[in-house]
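lol ok so funny story. i was supposed to be doing the assay writeup but got distracted and ended up predicting the structure for this chain instead. priorities right. anyway since i did it might as well share w the group, maybe its usefull for someone
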Amino acid sequence: MNSVKYEPIGTIHSPYKDLHGMPIQPIGAQGVKGKIELKNEYKEGLKDLQGFSHIILLYHLHLCNGHSLKVKPFLDTEKRGIFATRAPKRPNPIGLSVVRLEKIEGNIIHISNVDIVDGTPLLDIKPYIPHFDRNDDETITIGWFENKHHEANSKRSDKRFVD
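and the output, tada:
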């Protein structure tokens, strides 16, 4: 099997210095400001990004060690398969958030609706394009989240996924 190696392209900064009490999804972090400090060598790649209102951040969940194939997610009391959750204790600890792009100043990207702990290594940025990700004619089902998703606005993180 081939080895996979990623190097961070920058660092995400937020008001959250600790996982405890942090929003578990961007919907619960409305208005929370943060910024990305992109490494200077990648600054040129920001050309044309300013035209997007939202961006997708892919990042390394650096505070999680190991993984569990069944977890009790923040929005449930029942253990679920890791791939049916957004829990961080994954075989490859990669996080994903869609955040609002406020402005870009040099290599600093100002964002809001941030649900990410301060100092998180950023792996990639992609523009959020809803027309690419969903066909409005499709029926969307969200499994066990169906009766739980509304709780994400107020649910806060604890340390259940940190060793």
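The helical segments are 130-133. The beta strands are 10-13, 33-38, 54-60, 70-71, 80-81, 94-105, 108-112, 120-127.
back to the writeup now i swear
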